[in-house]
Amino acid sequence: MTPFSTLVALLATLAHAADYYNPIRNDSADPFMVYDQGNWYLLSTGGDVGITSAPTVAQLANAERVPVFSSTNTSYDVDYWPPEVHNFDGTWYIFTTAASSTAQDRDASRRIHVLKGGSTPAGPYTYAAQLGANVAGDQWAIDPTVLFDGGNHYLVWSCHDEAAYNAQSICIGQLNGPTELLNRVVISTPTNGWEQNGFPVNEGPSAVYYNGRTFLSFSASYCGTAQYSLGILAYNGNGILNPSSWNKTGPLFTSANGDYGPGHNGFVLNPGTTQDWWQVYHATPKSSGGCDNSRNTFFQKVNFDSNNFPVFGQPEAVGGPYAGPPGE
Ligand SMILES: *[C@@H]1O[C@H](CO)[C@@H](O)[C@H](O)[C@H]1NC(C)=O
Ligand SMILES: *[C@@H]1O[C@H](CO)[C@@H](O)[C@H](O)[C@H]1NC(C)=O
Ligand SMILES: *[C@@H]1O[C@H](CO)[C@@H](O)[C@H](O)[C@H]1NC(C)=O
């Protein structure tokens, strides 16, 4: 490029990078975000499934949250804990936990359900299926996400497999399309001290890929403590469904700068790139931590070290402005 065209390209980049402030949205726990055709779509835990969309990260703060799904079927009518939206062959599907309002033990009724949408993440959505009912017994399941590897899709979630370990753990299973789960393997249990503050917990998995490597982040410890944090399961190539294929490291992202219990993240690409990863996560300003609506959604860049391993740094302080992703 000539110096002049380089300058024009630089100015074009700068013109598109809107500054943003953290948190990017308040009262927004367990966030997940995608970008599609000029808009960001932010989902978080709620009483129904809702989506907030805007052309820039900064505009998500005040954009309207649009409800896209609720149900009167008492098998799955409450507690839509973190919905995520994923694309299968051009169609968007929401994966969400739901519980039954009429169950004698509401907590025990939590299962993963799939909603079918259309050609953009905006919806509308219709109920499609429950996942996992036929896989080695029907078990408690929350926090679904999708991992892609070698053309296969896998569901990853927080499970409670008492035979493996009597606490919330991370499970993975292969998907046959978006609506059928074929199997289930426990790949991480909360056996280290940093995973056991409050209660032993592994939850909120999210996949990220970099220079041929595959990682799952997850959240460790109880959300109601300031020690809620992120760890990483690094895939070592010996088979996705093999528990010994996942090397655990943590804690890698912990309370700092007035943000407590940072976790339950989701990875999202700077638009138009294949490896410029950013993350959304929640944190609370309460120094005791909290599982309540004081959890706000933060957004920041993810770096990688010379081994192509994710580097989260520290949660960014409330305020800003922070430079937005250049591709938006
Ligand atoms: C959002 O939460 C932050 C603390 O994380 C607080 O400083 C800010 O005032 C809140 N914004 C609104 C609009 O309530
Ligand atoms: C409610 O959902 C359950 C489980 O999917 C299903 O068996 C039942 O038929 C549904 N009830 C209605 C009224 O649609
Ligand atoms: C995973 O851990 C095993 C056992 O500690 C080690 O031999 C291997 O090099 C690790 N692999 C990766 C990719 O970190």
Automatic annotation (TrEMBL):
**One MF term from GO for this chain?**
hydrolase activity, hydrolyzing O-glycosyl compounds
| Residues annotated as catalytic | 30 (proton acceptor), 203 (proton donor)
Record-linked SUPFAM superfamilies: Arabinanase/levansucrase/invertase
The signal peptide, as residue positions, is 1-17
Pfam families (UniProt xref): Glyco_hydro_43
Q: Which InterPro entries match?
A: Glyco_hydro_43, Glyco_hydro_beta-prop_sf
The family this protein is said to belong to = Belongs to the glycosyl hydrolase 43 family.
Q: Which UniProt keywords apply?
A: Glycosidase, Hydrolase, Signal
Question: Which residue spans adopt a coiled-coil conformation according to this UniProt entry?
Answer: none
**Which protein is depicted?**
Glycoside hydrolase family 43 protein
Biological-process GO terms, alphabetical? carbohydrate metabolic process
PANTHER family in the record, alphabetically?
Answer: GLYCOSYL HYDROLASE, HYDROLASE, FAMILY 43, PUTATIVE (AFU_ORTHOLOGUE AFUA_3G01660)-RELATED
Annotated site residue numbers, Important for catalytic activity, responsible for pKa modulation of the active site Glu and correct orientation of both the proton donor and substrate: 143
